[in-house]
């Protein structure tokens, strides 16, 4: 690659990096604050829940307390990974640490799936051997649980990262679980039907499990560096081919760092020997057209039709 090509690459990368760096850093910091609040609330309530489950002799509440403990560990892990994702790039992680947040979303999806399967194994046997808990204590804990977990879920509801979305499902599962406890506690005050507890637990767990599996699929696809959105890829390719001086586009790669911030590289084949000024104009035109896509990193290499592509085997 000649000096002019190197200049194109470095200029394009610097322009894109400068354009969104401060906004992305602030956004990531806000995400960490939201996850931190959720972690604090979840840990505090898990301790209260263990005590309440013991006092009310409710196996359902104790099981949910164990599940909440797993949630707390998952949220704590996500918080640490999200904070790590705020660090600037270095010589080892040249794209920065954004993919650590994606790793957090993957780990937490797996933890939630394991936790949900465990709840199913706990709830199904209770269908044949339900126990009668203290309904009044269950009712009080259910109200408290809905308020605490609902507030934590609300704090994460504005989040846009995959990590926050997965964690939000953790909290929504807890809220729905407490709604089930609330309903069962009210019914048990009037009717001795303890079997309602495992039935509702199974229904809500299946609902959450389906949604988490959807998020896990998205996370795995991004983790394997698949194109996050084929529509975006087609639109970018159309823009790159639009200038009259461009004959072809190849080695067009678009992948995502964390589900939000995308990276794009491409080789553009020019159909004529253009001068420095025309090349600058071409770069400025492409920059303007690609700006709405908010690409975190872009690298564009210019080639001429009589050149052999260095990456022909890639």
What does this structure look like?
By secondary structure, the chain is mainly alpha-helical. 69% of the residues lie in helices and 9% in strands. The chain contains eight helices and three strands. It has a three-stranded mixed sheet with strand order 1-2-3. A hairpin with a 5-residue loop joins β1 and β2. α5 runs antiparallel to α6 (196-223). The radius of gyration is 26 Å and the shape is elongated. It starts with a helix and ends in a 10-residue tail after the last strand. The model is unreliable at 1-28 (pLDDT under 50).
Structural features:
disordered N terminus; 69% helix; elongated; 3 strands; 314 residues; 8 helices; 3-stranded mixed sheet; mainly alpha
Short overview:
69% of the residues lie in helices and 9% in strands.
Topology readout:
Elements: H1 3-56, H2 59-84, H3 98-126, H4 135-157, H5 162-190, H6 196-223, H7 230-241, E1 246-256, E2 262-270, H8 276-290, E3 297-304
Parallel strand pairs: 2-3
Antiparallel strand pairs: 1-2
Helix pairs in contact: 1-2, 1-4, 2-3, 2-5, 3-5, 3-6, 4-5, 5-6
Order of helices and strands: HHHHHHHEEHE
Whole-Å distance between the termini?
Answer: 16 Å
Give the uncertain stretches in residue-range form.
1-28
The structure class reads mainly alpha
Helix percentage range? 55-70%
